[in-house]
Amino acid sequence: MHGRESVRGEGSGGTVESVFGTIIGRESEQEALSAFVAAPGGRALVLRGDAGVGKSALLDHVVELATAENHRVIRAAGVEAESELPFAGLHQFLYPLLTSIDRLDDAHRGVFDVVFGRGGGAPPSVMTLGIAVLDLLSLAASQQPLLLVLDDGQWLDTSSTEVCGFVGRRLTGSSVKFVVGLRSGVPSGFDTAALPELPVTTLSEKVAERLLDMRHPGLDPQIRRLVLDEAQGNPLALLELPPYVHGGLAGRNPEKLFGYTGIPLPLRLQQVYGARIKSLGELVRAELLRGALDGVGAGTAADRTRSTRYRMRDADEAAACGLLDIDPLNGDFVFRHPLVRSTVVQVATPNERRAAHAALAQVHRDDVERRATHLAASAIDPDEQVAATLEAAADSATRRGGAVAAVAWLTRAAELSESREERSRRLGSATHVAAQAGQLDQVRQLVRSDTGSGNNDSPASVVASGYVASLEDGDLRSSQRQVFAAIESMRDVGVREPNEVLTRLVDLLLGINLYASDEDAWERTHELLDSLGDLVSSRSRVYQDAWGDVGRRGAGVGERVERAFAGLPDLEPWDVARLSVAAYHVDTLSRYRPYLQRTVDREVETGALVNATTMLLLIMMDQITAGEWDEAERTGQRCLELTTTHRHTLFLLHTQAQLGLVAALRGRINRARELQATVDAWARPRGVGLLTQITDAIGTTAALAEGDYEAAYLHAIGITPPGTFTPYAHQAPRTLLDLVEAALHTGRAQQARTHALAAQRAGLPHISPRLALTTYGALAITTTDLTEADHMFHRAETHPAAPHFPYELARIRLAHGIRQRHTQGPKTARRFLIQAMETFERLGAPTWTERARAELKASGLTTHTTSAQLAELTWQERRIADLAASGLTNKEIGERMHLSPRTVSSHLYRVFPKLGITSRAALRDALGKISGDQNV
Fold it and tell me: Which residues are in the HTH luxR-type domain (predicted)?
């Protein structure tokens, strides 16, 4: 890498392993970086190495290469002191492009306004913001290629890191390149960003000797050998250790300076810097400390234009001893290396650090988030004013999409609260944000913080512990008791207005009840929520009616869900997920699935794993309903990966239950029963009724697939007895057709008819399109009145939503076709049987396909006839087909029928698929088969 007489460190854009502009070593790295810059199109690259190994020098080299190729260069640096300020790092990159932001469309300008606190609106997702950043970069690079350089990326704030990772993976096809320097051994969001990496290792011994001799010629051989041994090829150590050793600091033998074996090299360098810092006067040390805590030293364009950044003064003494450099563009002091900055903070006493933070809070009094950061660090005793400032900063961060910072600030605000109530409330808010992100360890820690004050029954604590207990352990019963008690307590103390904690408790209770599926608990819940009146939000009322007993309370829910979804731009992600659950229960989720599929990637990117997992589960269940079983299995596998990694056991078992249902539908009986047993063994002892009902549904579906109708009937009546629908049994209305078919095939025609009529009396057709289809189908196949059977079948088959439920429609067609064969003759039955067979074949349900094929064979068709073959040909198509079958050409046919050869060709193009053939040679046999079939 390359350096100059004024050797500067990584954090300030300086260089450490070259002398007088000559690169020393690093031939392979130079070659890789040259190829990176010269490569067409956009791309990203991470340089990873230890502190002081020379990453910044390589970044300087990239800048020189790009500048020579006429790239515009924008540099930024992560600052440890700003690692909790949302989008602080992104602002460095985007500040020089503000003029280009004004050229974007209104939507993208609005995104940046929200992120930078210049406008209102919901916080953007990583995906939304990332796309806006990509558009901005593409716009900026349209006239001149652009290079983004990030040093000390490990200190970049989480929000910026997520966006940079998103952008870095999608630069292909642009004129933007992005290179990042990361310090090894320091965890970073870039660790999982999946960007290409170039390791930056230590120098070889030969190159290290060359660098040392060029930078420090004439060293005593003993000192030279000692420095080489201790530096181990680290360029910064090669440059910094010789003066330290040669100066005889502490008056020791040079060899004893490194007597503390086992200490990592960067720590040894910090001792070098620490000795220099301690030798400074008190005022200079205080000045350095304020600069260090405010992130001075990045040296970026955005930093220089930021007038609120602390500017160190009267620090010439520190510059003279090699701790500071002078920024050549504005004359400000900057730290020579990040290790200098961190050492300044480490050698300061706690009181000195608090005083420095207090001074910086005053400097940033007009910046709510930066002021909050410093106030939080300066306070010792509870201070309600400081706590309120932190809470305001958390609200600001949440609006801008900085959930991680919001949790940290709310937690600190709780610590500084003067009353137990305010402390608990703020911890509850922090817990809610963490819970939505699926950060269960963080949630547990916050719960312990709350219960540690003896406030283990606070509403906020109950919300937190309820999330953890339900998601991780499936402990619904104890969570249910606690939530009931917490809601009743809030009601009894006289809550008079809608309250966010109360809303969280209500929604949590409804979610627990959904999984528990316990009638007594639901009835108690309805009674409790009725007593709260208008304190329960309208959306919570939708959840209440849809998630409980949709057969009894579901009328009109579909319309209410549709009205709620009309306000999508203003909905929080967790409300989108909950409304989608309601939509699933009234079988209208397919309308909103495209939005869910767009949203789920965003939620995964931002770490909002509870929302992401809920959405993935919903997408999977809707894919099952729509007959997209391959896609459902892929979605399920993705869901399994997320739930396993993050120990969301309840969602893990729910996913396995849905995968078991898919396996049963596809006739993979062993796999279905394996998953059924796994889920049932976990769910039944815990009282997770939703999952035990699904396991019964797996048993029913698998038995139907096998043709074991007695077993199917026994499983089905385990969910609900014939003639009624067990209250609050989620699967009771959904398995209507299963129970009816199983009863018919086992000689229980009366029970089958009773159950179909019960569905009609319960008004199921008015609740959801799927229930309308299955109710009409059940009525059609159970009545003894042929006219009613035809009428009800017609209502089922022509229902506008029928194609959205292909499995159920195919079963109804199969059953109707069988009846038609027995009552109206085989010719009438064939259309229904062929349509059923084709649907089962397309779905991948082999046992159902064979059953339909056997019925078709019984109707007199012995070949793989398709519905297209039985489609009626028009008179003109039939005449053209007959003439073509006789051997005439298109021209000859056209002359006879006064048509152009092209028109004849178009007619044949339509005839072939109707007959299920692909060539003229097959016409005679196909036409003969149809004629024969029509005469049967």
Answer: 866-931
